[in-house]
Amino acid sequence: RREPLALINLKKKNEETGEEELASRLDHCKAKATRHIFLIRHSQYHLDGRADKDRTLTPLGREQAELTGRRLASLGLKFDQIIHSSMTRATETTEIISKHLPGVKKISTDLLREGAPIEPDPPVSHWKPEAVATVSLCPQQYYEDGARIEAAFRNFIHRADAKQEEDSYEIFVCHANVIRYIVCRALQFPPEGWLRLSLNNGSITHLVIRPNGRVALRALGDTGFMPPDKITRT
Where are the transmembrane segments (predicted)? Predict the structure, then answer.
């Protein structure tokens, strides 16, 4: 609902100035800047942790986060913020990455926590998330996680506000399922296809959102900056 026509009350249109007034109000509501969204999947972590606080990064995972941080820093961009999932593995990944981006503020949110966004198509009888052993999913889990992850998409993935004057560069550190779902939604692909995409640990996915609302995918799950022996997908 950021299309200029959706932001003005057409009933209040000035009858005397007519189309001229409408054009002026529409122009005032138009976005001017481009948003660059960098979606980072957390690094490798201990799969055997019983609770989230126990699922900390492995030594290799910490190396991966260092490499991702260096890569982001090497881009020479002025990052505005890092928004990250409140889960342990995403928080630890963020802390390591942020060392390479001094001064960039960090914001934690529960909206980006891992989950089951929507029942995948083709259907699967069992779903194997990276964090745990294979588990059966009941429809209720899709309803609960799906509503939250959809809320994350609507809250974070949109064209720039009309007041934003300059292009922005934002980092989101979260999870494979969240990123896969967001990519499908942002590109207007059937979101049920999210499970067909695969992302490495510490990978970078780059979305560009133009002022007119059009979205382009510049990179999906990029880990070309990592040596082959450091790449994992667990």
Answer: none
